[in-house]
């Protein structure tokens, strides 16, 4: 896995990563959620980290990669300025 960019708002975490083709997105997300909550809860805070059920994910071609990296890096600015791309931000819970 190659983490290319990340941004964390209080209620959400967004990142762009490259994963090997043999690893299913669902398995990747399961590992990220499990290892990050374990590390957080054991080492960083008395406030427990809980993940919501579900996730959003999609694949990109090489032509869209830099645009996705830039979007994630500037996500807080997009939220503050109202320039977020709705289809990338909305998740049905």
Describe this structure in words.
It is built from 4 helices and 2 strands. Strand 1 (2-9) and strand 2 form a beta hairpin. The chain has a two-stranded antiparallel ribbon. It starts with a strand and ends with a helix. The chain is globular. The chain is α+β, with helices and mostly antiparallel strands and 93 residues long.
Task: Sum up the structure in keywords.
2 strands; globular; disordered N terminus; two-stranded antiparallel ribbon; alpha+beta; 93 residues; 16% strand
Largest sheet: 2 strands, antiparallel
Q: Which structural class do you get from the secondary structure elements? A: alpha+beta
Instruction: Determine the mean pLDDT.
Output: 75
Oligomer: single chain
Number of strands: 2
Reconstruct the topology from this structure.
Elements: E1 2-9, E2 12-18, H1 25-44, H2 62-73, H3 75-81, H4 86-89
Antiparallel strand pairs: 1-2
Short description:
With 93 residues, the protein is an alpha+beta fold. It has four helices and two strands, in the order ββαααα.
């Amino acid at each position: 896995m190659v983490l290319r960019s990340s941004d964390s708002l209080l209620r959400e975490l967004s990142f762009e990563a490259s994963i090997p083709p043999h690893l299913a997105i669902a398995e990747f997300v399961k590992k990220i959620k499990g290892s990050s909550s374990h590390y957080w809860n054991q080492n960083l805070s008395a406030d427990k980290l809980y993940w919501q059920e579900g996730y959003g994910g999609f694949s990109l071609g090489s032509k869209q990669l830099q645009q996705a990296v830039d979007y994630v890096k500037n996500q807080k600015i997009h939220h503050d300025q109202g320039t977020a791309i709705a289809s990338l931000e909305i998740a049905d819970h």
